[in-house]
Amino acid sequence: MPVKIRLQRHGKKGKPFFWIVAADSRAKRDGRFLEKLGTYNPNTNPATIDINIDNSVQWLQNGAQPTDTARAILSYKGVLLKKHLVEGVKKGALTQEQVEEKFAAWVTEKEQAVANKKNKLADDKAKAKAEALKAEEAVNNARIAAAEEAAAEASAEEVVVEATAEDVVEETVEATEAPTAEATADAPEATSETPEESTPADEKE
Q1: Would strands 3-12 and 65-66 be described as parallel, antiparallel, or unpaired?
Q2: Which CATH architecture has domain 3-92?
Q3: Which alpha helices (DSSP H) does the chain contain, by range?
């Protein structure tokens, strides 16, 4: 019976969650399986992978063939490396203690690399958040400055309008008083003297 190590899809729509299983290659993808070897969650960054390394190595030694995606996951978690080291024990090139020591050193190095990646992602996220806050603050300051400028312009326009209104009132008052003064100046002055009576010409003798 040909056996494949592959992914079996679970989870919600848009948020897939996979089981890593050993299953008959003739079975449906999400159908019956022989053994569940682990889980794979691609929704996190980096992806969360939990796998039984020893059982996965056992299935590989028994001839199970992983799919491309499953092979990448097994390589990422060191399953293929462990299988290679175990084969070295069978050939007499390594002892079991050396295998465990080499694999433990690889796991430690891998975990450090993953931790560094997580720290870098956290730093990048914090930096992006700080830049976003800075940009938002700049936009808010620009809006406040524009509002203050608009208020200053409105105040200046009100002052101009008030000054213009005062000038119009003054001009109206001056225009009203000017004809009265002219009429007073043009009127004949009244005198208390009476005109001299004309005397008749001397009668001819």
Answers
A1: parallel
A2: 2-Layer Sandwich (3.30)
A3: 53-61, 68-76, 79-91, 96-186
Render pLDDT for 126-147 as a digit per residue (tens, 0 to 9): 888 888 888 888 888 888 988 8
- Its pTM surpasses 0.90: no
Q: From CA 5, how far away is CA 64, in angstroms rounded?
A: 6
Q: Domain limits of the chain?
A: 3-92, 95-173
Contact at 8 Å (CB) between 7 and 40? yes
Among candidate residues 94, 59, 43, the one with its CA nearest the CA of residue 51: 59
Assess whether the previous peptide bond of 46 is cis (omega < 30° from 0): yes
Longest dimension (CA), the chain: 187
> Contact 3/14 with Cβ under 8 angstroms?
no
Q: 76 is written with which tokens?
A: 């990422």
